[in-house]
Amino acid sequence: MPLLFIIGFFLWVWAELAALVAIGGEVGVLLTIAGIFVTAMVGMWLLRTQGRVIMSALQAQLVRGEMPVDSLADGVSVMGGAVLMLVPGYITDGIGLVMFLPVIRTLIGASLLRAITRRGHVMMRGGGGPFWSGMAGRAWPEGAEGFRPDVRTEDDVIEGDFEERQPDQDRLDRR
């Protein structure tokens, strides 16, 4: 597996360099370098705008008591796309730009989250979404109840001591 990774890395670097040389031969070195910086800026702008949209959808789903799996999948793909657009090279920029497309980002993000949960490092509780219907059973431990923020149990009680203090009248008068 490590040998395959190393070979893939060298092939990727070779392809990126070949693309840079080809583009540089057509439009010139200055425009090629400027294009790399422009695509990095576009990637950061897309990350900010799409990240806000995804965060608002995630918050809305949490308020409704739903598990935000689709929003998480979108977020993973958008983050991956932004990282790829920051890496110098036109091939990674193209792949990163594709990862921002709405339908594609959900598919790519869902497959990335599935791969993460299959490895056992992350436990996703809850369900929902068209891409996660078959996964929820494998990700839950035995006897898990799922994501229900409105359910109260005895463990919800926090015990502690408190001391009531009167407001300092001198401070209040100064304001």
Write the SSE topology.
Layout (H helix, E strand, L loop, with lengths): L1 H26 L1 H35 L5 H18 L3 H9 L3 H17 L17 H4 L29 H6 L1
How would you describe what is shown here?
This protein is mainly alpha-helical and 175 residues long. The protein has one domain (12-174). The chain has 7 helices and no strands. It has helices at 2-27, 29-63, 69-86, 90-98, 102-118, 136-139, 169-174. Helix 3 (69-86) packs across helix 5. It is elongated. Mean pLDDT is 77; it is low at 124-150.
Strand pairing plus helix content: what structural class?
Answer: mainly alpha
Tally the helices: 7
Number of domains: 1
Gyration radius from CA atoms, angstroms = 24 Å
End-to-end separation in angstroms reads: 68 Å
Helix content: 55-70%
**Mean model confidence by pLDDT:** 77
Please summarize the sheet with the most strands.
none
Shape: elongated
Residues in β-strands, percent: under 5%
Low-confidence stretches: 124-150
Quaternary structure type? single chain
Q: Give me the strand/helix succession.
A: HHHHHHH
The total of beta strands comes to 0
